[in-house]
């Protein structure tokens, strides 16, 4: 298996600790994701990625003979439901740590459950900037294996303004915590260049058309369009742009890459639209090819809902396993926090090699250099720039 040699080696090094572990007692891992509803495509990718990692780890003995056990809850992409299942896992089920959240609004509603109870939360999916800035990292028990939107905004504005020399930028965003954060982050990056959006359009989740908002952006002479929302609404935006036959460059954060967008909008409407990505499927990277083969065997899916969500949740499980080895099985929030902030050796993941992913002042595992520009071409996500595709086999590590 993909991780067999790594885990076997780690078990050998730590064999002397086996008597300290309660052999056979599971390490209980909470998992929270939207498994039903409009966000289910990437929520289930989180689930399958985590399940695959747990399966591989348990096949080689788990943590010092203790199997990992996922305790899964569906937040349905509803903030109050996310809060309810968070309290269930932390206060009732008393899981050892939790991996979870795809939707920023859901995560923000629940963060204090983990923080107040000193319970380690590893976020593999939600990218809202506020998720890891609500609490100062020195005191926070919230970590993330996904690029925060402040980095996505920095990357996108640099691509639009600095590289392409486009200055008239319009923003469309939903009325959720995710959309609010996206408008702020893009606007802040534009302000650094003495610019402001020429138009900001807002809409509710569930909208079926954004033609009027597109027309308003077009009337404002927008040279580039940035859309901050999740899968179904990205599809509505893409279809509306196609309906108007408006060929303005279309940029978005990662939700544009979801399977649901392709299914709802179709390849023709999506052609040429661009999004931020931490991982893009390519044959040059053996580890990613192996991961996808294992993922499809496990999930039985014909097409992955979100490669980023699956790979980041898979890596998150292994990062937490590494932390467990450092704490010698201590699952207290303080012990796990200290271990994550002071990794004793690099971990070779699917998305990247994590050298020092976290510190006492930074709980986000990504830096802006680790983001790629992806593009929809003929119904597939590819590297926008050919030179990026050539360099894809080289690991991009986090910069200080």
Automatic annotation (TrEMBL):
Taxonomic superkingdom: Bacteria
Gene3D superfamilies of this UniProt entry?
A: 3.40.50.2300
Domain Leucine-binding protein positions = 26-344
Q: Does the keyword Signal apply?
A: yes
A GO BP term here is: amino acid transport
CDD domains according to UniProt: PBP1_ABC_ligand_binding-like
Position of the signal peptide: 1-21
Keyword terms of this UniProt record: Amino-acid transport, Signal, Transport
A UniProt-annotated Pfam family: Peripla_BP_6
Matching entries from InterPro entries are given as:
BCAA_transport, Leu-bd, Leu_Ile_Val-bd, Peripla_BP_I
Q: Which family does it belong to?
A: Belongs to the leucine-binding protein family.
**Which PANTHER family does its entry note?**
LEUCINE-SPECIFIC-BINDING PROTEIN, PERIPLASMIC BINDING PROTEIN OF ABC TRANSPORTER FOR NATURAL AMINO ACIDS
| Name listed for the protein in its UniProt record | ABC transporter substrate-binding protein
Organism of origin is Caldimonas caldifontis
């Amino acid at each position: 298996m993909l991780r067999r040699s790594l885990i076997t080696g780690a078990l050998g090094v730590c064999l002397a600790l086996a008597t300290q572990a309660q052999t056979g007692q599971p390490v209980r891992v909470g998992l929270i994701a939207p498994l039903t509803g409009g966000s289910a495509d990437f929520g289930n990718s989180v689930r399958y990625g985590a399940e695959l990692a747990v399966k591989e780890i348990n096949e080689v003995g788990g943590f010092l003979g203790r199997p990992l056990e996922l305790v899964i809850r569906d937040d349905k992409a509803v903030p109050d439901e996310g809060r309810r299942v968070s309290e269930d896992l932390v206060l009732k089920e008393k899981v050892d740590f939790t991996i979870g959240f795809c939707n920023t609004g859901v995560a923000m509603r629940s963060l204090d459950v983990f923080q107040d109870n000193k319970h380690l939360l590893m976020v593999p999916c939600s990218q809202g900037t506020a998720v890891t800035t609500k609490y100062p990292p020195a005191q926070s028990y919230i970590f993330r294996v996904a690029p925060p939107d402040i980095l996505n905004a920095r990357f996108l504005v640099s691509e639009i303004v600095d590289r392409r020399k486009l200055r008239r930028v319009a923003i469309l965003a939903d009325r959720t915590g995710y959309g609010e954060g996206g408008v702020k982050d893009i606007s802040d990056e534009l302000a650094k260049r003495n610019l402001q959006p020429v138009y900001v359009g807002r809409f509710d989740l569930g909208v079926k058309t954004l033609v009027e908002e597109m027309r308003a952006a077009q009337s404002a002479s927008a040279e580039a369009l940035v859309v901050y929302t999740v899968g179904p609404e990205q599809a509505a935006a893409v279809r509306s742009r196609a309906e108007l036959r408006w060929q303005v460059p279309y940029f978005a954060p990662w939700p544009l890459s979801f399977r649901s967008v392709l299914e709802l909008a179709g390849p023709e409407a999506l052609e040429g639209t661009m999004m931020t990505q931490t991982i893009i499927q390519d044959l040059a990277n053996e580890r990613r090819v192996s991961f996808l083969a294992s993922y499809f065997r496990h999930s039985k899916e014909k097409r992955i809902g979100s490669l980023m969500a699956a790979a980041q949740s898979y890596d998150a499980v292994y990062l937490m396993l590494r932390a467990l080895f450092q704490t010698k099985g201590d699952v207290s929030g303080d012990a796990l926090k200290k271990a994550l902030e002071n990794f004793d050796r690099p971990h070779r993941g699917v998305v990247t090699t994590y050298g020092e992913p976290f510190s006492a002042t930074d709980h986000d595992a990504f830096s802006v250099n680790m983001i790629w520009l992806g593009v929809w071409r003929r119904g597939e996500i590819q590297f926008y720039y050919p030179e990026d595709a050539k360099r894809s086999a080289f690991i991009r590590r986090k910069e200080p």
